[in-house]
What we know:
Blueprint: H1 5-17, H2 19-30, H3 38-41, H4 45-56, H5 64-67, H6 71-82, H7 87-93, H8 97-110
Amino acid sequence: xxxxxxxxxxxxxxxxxxxxxxxxxxxxxxxxxxxxxxxxxxxxxxxxxxxxxxxxxxxxxxxxxxxxxxxxxxxxxxxxxxxxxxxxxxxxxxxxxxxxxxxxxxxxxxxx
Length: 112
């Protein structure tokens, strides 16, 4: 059965508003940026980090305040996307030696 155009548009609207689904759609179907979904994607730290790394393949300054809300996505973003030390992340993990150790070790191996 072929979907009616109206149903397809409705489904895409639903996809667009779910950060994880929008990330998957942009990466696997569109194979590129999806500007209409970016305001929704950027509000989820994990999705924003992965979108910048795998879809945009460049830093995404507008999403950085959201990415910084969670350590693991922020660290992945710093290591794999920014590829340099990220002072804003360092301020957040300051005073947590185990996180600083992980961050510094990854930065040594994955940055150039």
